[in-house]
């Protein structure tokens, strides 16, 4: 009996001690947790007051590299240009979206498809590449010996710019003509019926080997926003004329070359 009484007394004393602790200290399981001396609660972390950090701005797209266009003295030889084109190892057969590119023996290198209807083909100086012209500004570059194919840009980066019109001016260099489209209050194609809807001419080059597009800096001789490139040679020369006559006389600006003066 004495042992049972002692056990009961011990249990009662233990319960009394717990009640006393809760009354004076509070429930330890309801107290907030601490981490390194700071209170921790199951709440989302609040942004500190006065924190003025902003999201990192997006990096703007890189500008195209620029190349110069320099006036030069040049004597154009159309016969030499024709001879170079006549000796081409590749030729276009057919056209109007159904053409095909062949070699001299008639072997088909590329023919029209749903993806690219062939309207024209021009061989590069040196006869390494064939520029295949499709519809809607699409083009394709072929290197027949290796069957390598490159799709040059269809149009320049930016808004309201026309698709490229490509011309060879070197063994691996294309000259591209584009322009800013006129926009009227009613929308684009302000003078579409007069074929005069270019607000400003823009020129570019495309390095085929590097697949690099560059923008041409207009020479100082170009004093009007619209200018015509009328002749191109395989040794890098371009013939320019102004779009609008001055005092009734056509303004022939002469020949230019991409890069520094010769």
Q: Would you give an account of this structure?
A:
- There is one protein chain.
- The protein is mainly beta and 262 residues long.
- It has three domains: 2-29; 66-72 and 153-262, no CATH class; 79-151, no CATH class.
- The protein is built from two helices and 19 strands.
- Strands 11-12-15-16-3-19-18-17 form an eight-stranded mixed sheet, with no helix packed on it.
- The longest helix is centred in the first third of the chain and has 24 residues, at 2-25.
- It is elongated.
- The termini are far apart.
- The model is unreliable at 25-62 and 190-194 (pLDDT under 50).
List SSEs in N-to-C order: HEEEHEEEEEEEEEEEEEEEE
Radius of gyration, in Å, reads: 38 Å
Q: How many structural domains can be distinguished in the coordinates?
A: 3
Overall shape: it is: elongated
Figure out the total of helices. Answer: 2
Give the termini distance in whole angstroms. 123 Å
Give the total of beta strands. Answer: 19
Placed side by side, the strands forming the largest sheet appear as: 11-12-15-16-3-19-18-17
How much β-strand is present in the residues? 35-45%
| Class by alpha and beta content | mainly beta
Overall pLDDT level: 77
Largest sheet: 8 strands, mixed
Q: What share of the residues lie within helices?
A: 10-25%
Which stretches are poorly predicted, pLDDT < 50 over at least 5 residues?
25-62, 190-194
């Amino acid at each position: 009996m004495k042992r049972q009484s002692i056990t009961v007394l011990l249990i009662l004393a233990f319960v009394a001690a717990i009640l006393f602790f809760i009354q004076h200290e509070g429930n330890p399981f309801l107290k907030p947790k601490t981490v390194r001396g700071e209170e921790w609660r199951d709440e989302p972390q609040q942004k500190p007051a006065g924190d003025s950090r902003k999201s990192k701005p997006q990096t703007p797209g890189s500008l195209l590299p620029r190349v110069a266009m320099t006036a030069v003295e040049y004597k154009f030889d159309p016969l030499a240009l024709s001879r170079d084109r006549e000796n081409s190892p590749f030729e276009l057969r057919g056209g109007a979206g159904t053409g095909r590119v062949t070699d001299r023996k008639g072997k088909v290198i590329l023919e029209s498809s749903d993806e690219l209807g062939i309207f024209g083909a021009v061989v590069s100086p040196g006869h390494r590449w064939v520029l295949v012209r499709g519809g809607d500004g699409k083009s394709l570059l072929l290197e027949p010996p290796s069957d390598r194919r490159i799709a040059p840009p269809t149009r320049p980066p930016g808004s309201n710019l026309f698709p490229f019109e490509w011309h060879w001016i070197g063994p691996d260099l294309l000259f591209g003509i584009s322009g800013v489209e006129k926009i009227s209050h009613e929308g684009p194609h302000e003078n579409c019926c007069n074929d005069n809807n270019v607000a400003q001419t823009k020129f570019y080059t495309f390095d085929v080997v590097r697949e690099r597009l560059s923008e041409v800096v207009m020479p100082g001789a170009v004093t009007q926003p619209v200018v015509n490139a009328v002749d191109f040679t395989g040794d890098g020369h371009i013939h320019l004329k102004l779009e609008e006559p001055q005092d009734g006389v056509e303004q022939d600006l002469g020949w230019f070359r991409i890069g520094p003066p010769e």
